[in-house]
Amino acid sequence: MDKNSVITLEDGTNYELLEKISYQDINYFLAEKLLAEDKETGEYAILKEIKENNETYVEKEENEDILLTIIKILTTNFTNVINSLKPEELL
Predict the structure, then answer these.
(1) What is the C-alpha separation between 59 and 48, in angstroms, rounded?
(2) Which residue, 55, 57, 56, 45, is CA-closest to 17?
(3) Which of 3, 27, 29, 55 could form a disulfide with 49 if both were Cys (CB 3.0 to 4.6 A apart)?
(4) Do the strands 55-60 and 6-8 form a parallel or antiparallel pair, or are they unpaired?
(5) Has residue 20 been placed in a domain?
(6) Quick one: DSSP state of residue 54?
(7) What is the residue range of 32's domain?
């Protein structure tokens, strides 16, 4: 699974994968829920990639400690990107 792709969970909900990070050898995605015709909702989730029996699927991460850790990592990554930008790149 790659960043910027759209996936469908088992419950039929579509998500766009916005950012991908690896934590403890597991891939996690910051994802935005989509409505029909890929319309953005402004609702976000952290999705966990699971690989079992030669198959790959994702599910919402529910563990609060892991969620907090992933959010901290994403915040640090975004802060580093923003701090590395030059003013002319923001225009």
Answers:
(1) 5
(2) 45
(3) 27
(4) unpaired
(5) yes
(6) T
(7) 6-90
E strand or H helix at 6, and its extent?
A: strand 6-8
Residue 89 DSSP class: G
Distance CA(23)–CA(44), nearest Å, equals: 19
Question: Does 22 fall in a domain?
Answer: yes
> Can you give the pTM of this predicted structure?
0.82
Geometric angle at alpha carbon 86, from 80 and 87, rounded to 5°:
120
Helices (H), 1-91: 64-84
- Encode the chain (91 residues) as per-residue pLDDT tens digits: 778 789 999 888 999 999 999 999 999 999 999 987 778 889 999 999 999 999 998 999 999 999 999 999 999 988 888 888 887 766 7
Domains held by the chain: number? 1
Residue 1 lies in a domain: no
Residue 71 lies in a domain: yes
- Residue 11's identity, in one-letter code, is D
Residue 9 · residue 59 · CB < 8 Å: yes
